[in-house]
Amino acid sequence: MASPSLDASWATSEEASWNDLRTFLAVVAHGSMNGAARATGQTQPTVARRIRALEENLGVALFQRGPNRLELTEAGRAVLESSAPMAEAARAVPRVAAAYRPDPSAPVRITATASVTMFLSVHGAELAKAAGPVEIVYIPTRRKLDLVSGEADIALRMRRLPDEPDLTARRIGQIAFGMYDRSATPSAVIAPSESPSLSYQAAFLERFLEVHPVPIVARIGDMPIRYQAAKTGLGAAFLPCWLGDSDPDLVRLEAPDEFVEEVFMMRHARTRNRPHVARVANALVALFKRHSALLNGEAV
C-alpha cells in the first residue's frame, strides 16, 4: 500500500482521534483487523476505515500490509509506544471515579508483601470485625500498586515510599527477618529467587553462607512456599521472625538484629476518611502495636 499523502495539509490536521487510536491498539493487540473487530464490537470495514483515517491524519503508514498479516512500520511502533500509556490511563479512569463515589458497600483493599499479608491473614477475623459489614480484599504483591489511581485503599510498605501528592505515610511498626531450619546445624539453604526485588534477601543470605558454608538446594521467591519447604526439612530459609518463632518445628539460626524492616501504612486523601477504610487503618495500627514484640523477633 502506498504511504498516506504527505502534503502540507497533515501539518495542520487535528489531533488523532482517541477512537481511532483505540482501534489501532486493538489491531496491534489482536494481530488483525478481524480480531480487533471482534474485540471491539465493530465491523471489519469500520476498523479498516478507522486505521486509514488515523494514517491519513498522522501522515504516515502504521502497518505494512501483506498476505494474511499486518506488521507495524517503524512509525507504527513509535505511535504504539506513545499511545499505549493513554490506554492504561483510560482503564484507570473508572477506578479513580469509583474511589470518589460514596459507596458504603465498597470493599477495603489492602496491598502488602506476601509476608505482611500472611501476618494479616492470621488476624483476619479481627480485621474483618473492624471492616464490617464490608469485605476486605487482600492483595499480596511486590508490585507497588497505585493508590493515586485507586488500585488499593491501604498499602503497607517497607521501603522506597512514593512521593506523590495527597498520599500520607505513617510508620506503624517493624518486621524482623532471620534464617530458620528444622535443625540448629543446617545442611543446606533455600535461597530467594534471582529477582532484583529480592536483592536485599540475597545479600543477607550471602553473609549467612559465609558463616554456614552449605549448598543452596533450591531457589524459592514466594515466602509462604519457602516456609512450607523449610518445614519439610529441605533447608534453612529466610523468613519473618513472627512466623518462624511461632512454629515449634523451626529453629532460629541467628539473632534478627541484622535485618529489621520498618512498616509504613500509606493512604490517599480521597479514601482516608471513608469510614470503613478509617476503621481498618486504626485496627492495623493497633494490631502491629499489640504484636510488636513478636514482629520484632523479641518474643522467643
Summarize the structure in words.
Belongs to the LysR transcriptional regulatory family. Residues 18-73 form the HTH lysR-type domain. This is LysR family transcriptional regulator. The protein is α/β, with parallel strands linked by helices and 300 residues long. It folds into 2 domains: 8-94, Arc Repressor Mutant, subunit A; 102-300, D-Maltodextrin-Binding Protein, domain 2, CATH 3.40.190. The protein has helices at residues 18-30, 33-40, 44-58, 74-100, 114-122, 124-131, 199-211, 223-231, 241-244, 269-272, 275-290, 292-295, and strands at 63-66, 69-72, 108-112, 136-140, 154-157, 167-181, 189-191, 216-219, 236-240, 251-252, 260-268. Strand 7 (189-191), helix 7 (199-211) and strand 8 (216-219) form a beta-alpha-beta unit. The model is unreliable at 1-13 (pLDDT under 50).
Spell out the key features of this protein.
300 residues; D-Maltodextrin-Binding Protein, domain 2; nine-stranded mixed beta sheet; 11 strands; 20% strand; disordered N terminus
Instruction: Name the structural class.
Output: alpha/beta
Shape: globular
Number of strands: 11
| Biggest sheet character | 9 strands, mixed
Mean pLDDT: 84
First-residue to last-residue Cα separation: 75 Å
Please state the oligomeric state of the protein chains shown. Answer: single chain
Going by CATH, the architecture of the largest domain would be 3-Layer(aba) Sandwich
Compute the number of structural domains. 2
> Uncertain spans, ≥5 residues at pLDDT below 50?
1-13
Strand content: 15-25%
CATH topology of the largest domain: D-Maltodextrin-Binding Protein, domain 2
Work out the helix count: 12
